[in-house]
Design a protein that fits this description.
The protein is mostly helical. Helices cover 69% and strands 1% of the residues. The chain contains 18 helices and two strands. A hairpin with a 2-residue loop joins strand 1 and strand 2. The N terminus and C terminus are likely disordered.
Length: 501
């Protein structure tokens, strides 16, 4: 690994521009993890809003699409691997900018931590199906949080090793995984759509069938979380040959995800009753495979789920390390995050540290007794965080390009109206859901059914972000807090300090 050289030692290692549109699509699609979202999300969504998942997915897509247009416009104006952190800092101020970068990073690290357990669970299910139930005296129980986490962390280490060796090899690996998992997903869901014995109903697309406002808000936040990850394409904009290719990759992946989610949600409900969806929860996709096919074909959805989890974890490591790289360049975080491997052209040290932090969080999460509890708690917490940083980034676009309101109706809508409305919808949705969590119970308990607990997770992350922002401003004396501007990625001139990470 390279150390962070001072300016006097010569040119510093830089990120390598080697990616194109296909690489961006692979990264965005892997990060969105359609198969994982479908596998663990359809049952969870059904437990909240019944059979209205298709309606919520369509509704959630609209503000997400508006935010995607904001990302594309901001990236065209200022391509930077820090994206939201840089754009919000310049347009809305350094404090919300830092908070955007912080919650994005922390949410991604938490995602890596709990998805590691999913990887381990699927591997153990596959092992059980081959007749392997114990190893070295340890029971290979797929429902055991501790065992699944341990297996998942071993896989996480292997993915980290591949990630630091170069982006081209990583995106090719992800593309191969995507081809397999989407083939399996389309095949099984297509068969369920044709042979399912539950009649198709247009009421599935009617959000007014959801009687409870809290359930609607929670379900919509979860549906937004389904789409989370398409913006990963923008994190490698400094490694993409043309910055506009980042936007193309993100948009292609986003529309592809919408099609997959709607297709799968209808197929699941054609084949399974509401009771079946709720009862199987995060195991809905493997259950579908068992209903539709005999072995060994019934195992294919499990393998696809494992590939999806693997690809999504690796695709999440990539933007997380690059977001921290952008923050390190501004000295809002320590110089460790700015170290680029001289041979591979990747933020190798930062990627390894992110993996280590995710591993620690995953081990701490073992305190929750059931794997499903950990998944549900993390998913809901990250949903609020995603609503926060997507909303702030969209508002940053509306503020930065506010002069476009005088350039005609179309330009005013695309540059100001749509981003502002999308951002306000997500921020309002997150605020309403947070209020609902606080008022749904009168005590604190470590359970995903406890409102105070669900609110405390994102609240702690935000408060920690404000604390870290204060350290960056008053201890590190980061220039970012004087100007609100992110470092120009093409002309880094700030001298490095030796402040700790």
């Amino acid at each position: 690994m390279s150390s962070a050289p001072s300016p006097s030692t010569g040119p510093r290692p830089a990120l390598r521009r080697s990616l194109g549109v296909v690489d961006g699509v692979a990264l965005a699609a892997s990060s969105t993890a359609a198969t994982t979202s479908i596998a663990i999300g359809m049952g969870t969504t059904a437990s909240i809003v019944g059979l209205q998942a298709p309606a919520l997915l369509l509704l959630a897509f609209l503000p997400v699409l508006g935010i995607a247009t904001a990302y594309a416009r901001l990236n065209r104006s200022e391509p930077n691997c820090g994206n939201g952190y840089v754009w919000v800092g310049k347009s809305l101020g350094p404090w919300p900018g830092f908070l955007t970068g912080w919650v994005t990073v922390v949410g991604s690290v938490v995602f890596c931590a709990y998805t590691s357990a999913i990887m381990g669970s699927v591997v153990l299910i596959l092992a059980n199906r081959t007749g392997l139930h114990t190893l070295a005296g340890i029971r290979l129980d797929p429902s055991s949080t501790g065992v699944t986490t341990a297996v998942g962390l071993v896989i996480l280490l292997a993915l980290t090793a591949l990630t630091v060796t170069g982006m081209r090899a990583t995106t090719r690996f992800q593309f191969a995984l995507l081809v397999f998992e989407y083939t399996v997903l389309l095949g099984f869901c297509g068969w369920a759509l044709v042979t399912g014995h539950h009649a198709f109903s247009l009421s599935w697309f009617n959000p007014f069938e959801i009687p409870d406002g809290t359930a609607f808000a929670q379900g919509l936040v979860l549906a937004v979380f389904f789409f989370w990850g398409w913006d990963a394409a923008f994190s490698v904009t400094e490694e993409t040959r043309k910055p506009e290719d980042s936007a193309r990759g993100g948009f292609i992946a986003l529309f592809a995800m919408l099609g997959l989610f709607l297709f799968a949600s209808v197929a699941f409900q054609r084949e399974m009753s509401l009771a079946e969806l709720v009862r199987n929860g995060p195991q809905a996709l493997p259950y579908l495979g068992e209903k539709l096919a005999a072995e060994p074909w019934a195992t294919l959805p499990l393998i696809a789920l494992m590939f999806s989890a693997v690809a999504s974890v690796q695709a999440t490591l990539i933007p997380t390390a690059r977001g921290l790289l952008a923050m390190g360049r501004d000295r809002t975080m320590g110089p460790l995050w700015t170290r680029i491997h001289p041979r591979h052209g990747t933020p190798a040290v930062g990627t390894v540290v992110v993996t280590a932090i995710a591993g620690v969080i995953a081990l701490l999460a073992v305190a929750l007794p059931e794997l499903s509890d950990m998944l549900l708690a993390a998913v809901n917490a990250i949903g609020l965080i995603v609503a926060l940083y997507y909303g702030l980034t969209a508002l940053a676009c509306a503020v930065r390009f506010r002069s476009a309101r005088h350039a005609g109706v179309r330009e005013a809508l695309l540059a100001v109206g749509v981003p502002a409305l999308s951002g306000l919808v997500l921020l309002g949705l997150g605020g309403y859901l947070g209020y609902s969590y606080l008022t749904m119970t009168d005590h604190f308990e470590l359970s995903p059914d406890n409102g105070w607990f669900m609110f405390s997770l994102p609240a702690v992350i935000v408060l920690a972000g404000l604390g870290m922002a204060a350290i960056a401003k008053y201890v590190r004396h980061a220039p970012y807090f004087a100007t609100g501007h992110g470092t120009d990625a093409e002309s880094l001139t700030l001298p490095m300090d030796r402040t700790a990470v």
